[in-house]
Automatic annotation (TrEMBL):
Domain DUF695 span(s) in chain numbering: 27-144
All residue ranges annotated as the Regulator of ribonuclease activity B domain in the record: 155-253
UniProt cross-references to InterPro entries, sorted A to Z: DUF695 (IPR016097), RraB-like_sf (IPR036701), RraB_dom (IPR009671)
Name by which UniProt lists this protein: DUF695 domain-containing protein
Gene3D superfamilies: RraB-like
Provenance organism: Corallococcus aberystwythensis
Matches recorded under Pfam families: DUF695 (PF05117), RraB (PF06877)
Length: 260
């Protein structure tokens, strides 16, 4: 997907979260607004700007006293590099450093970027690394939340909308779900597992997704849609789908404003 090199073709939606990795604790900030556009064919190059923290905590994360200074430099770097077409998609903090992630056109060189970084790095000695990442693996895998963590976020948005519209969340109703699989056999096996969990009404069909042939699986079950229950159901479904290379595309239901 192409776009003007110096502007984001999406509305920014930055969110922060905490996680544990094999190397220790991490805090991640990600622009989730970029996800429908990833990867962008016009921006196949990943830039990583590393800011060594001045006074990291003992676990390697950023101290609250340094937060403003670090983000001031990060914002300055993002602003000065945007005219070159470098678009910031997030940052990751671990092991005493904050690493800023940007994607840009392949025509931009280190010789163009380095002087701008040095002019806007302030008190930080910022490291600059340029690598090809046409599939946006760093964004989609390194920065992106785990499937359940991301789905819980979407659940909160959906439940909040239902509540605003006066929905009686504790009233059971038919809740529809959708998943996609790269192969029909995987969809068939996942369907059998889902059926054992009480889901029904399965419909399976081939569809084009981002230019690729996928197998869509629709199914439903009667449940309530309060926060605790939808999170529990999401975990149940994802536990099955991830074992069969499936992706979960969420749930939907009719609005219920009166007791049956």
């Amino acid at each position: 997907m192409s776009a003007p090199s110096s502007s984001k073709p999406w509305n920014e939606a930055f969110e922060d979260y905490f996680r544990w990795s094999t190397t220790g604790p991490q805090t991640v900030g990600i622009d989730l607004g970029a996800s429908p556009h990833a990867p962008m064919a016009s921006h196949p190059v990943l830039w990583r700007l590393t800011l060594p923290l001045k006074n990291p905590m003992s676990n390697g994360l950023r101290d609250s006293d340094e937060k403003d200074a670090v983000f001031a430099v990060q914002d300055a770097l993002a602003a000065c590099l945007r005219p070159l077409g470098l678009l910031m998609v997030g940052h990751l903090v671990e092991q005493g450093a904050q690493v800023v992630y940007l994607y840009g056109p392949k025509s931009v060189s280190v010789e163009q970027v380095l002087p701008l970084v040095q002019a806007h790095q302030g008190a930080y000695d910022v490291g600059v690394a340029r690598t090809r990442d046409a599939r946006w693996t760093a964004y989609l895998r390194t920065l992106f939340p785990a499937p359940l963590q991301y789905q819980v976020r979407l659940n909160r948005q959906r439940v909040a909308l239902l509540r605003t519209e006066g929905d009686l969340l504790e009233v059971p109703r038919d809740v529809a779900h959708r998943a996609h699989f790269p192969w029909e056999r995987q969809a068939e096996v996942a369907e059998a597992w889902l059926r054992d969990q009480g889901f029904e009404g399965f419909e399976r069909q081939p569809v084009a997704v981002s230019g690729m042939l996928m197998w869509r699986l629709d199914f439903h079950r009667v449940d309530t849609v309060d926060e605790a229950r939808v999170d529990e159901v999401s975990e149940e479904i994802l536990g099955i789908l991830e074992s069969h290379e499936g992706t979960y595309d969420g749930w939907g239901c009719l609005l219920v404003t009166e007791l049956p």
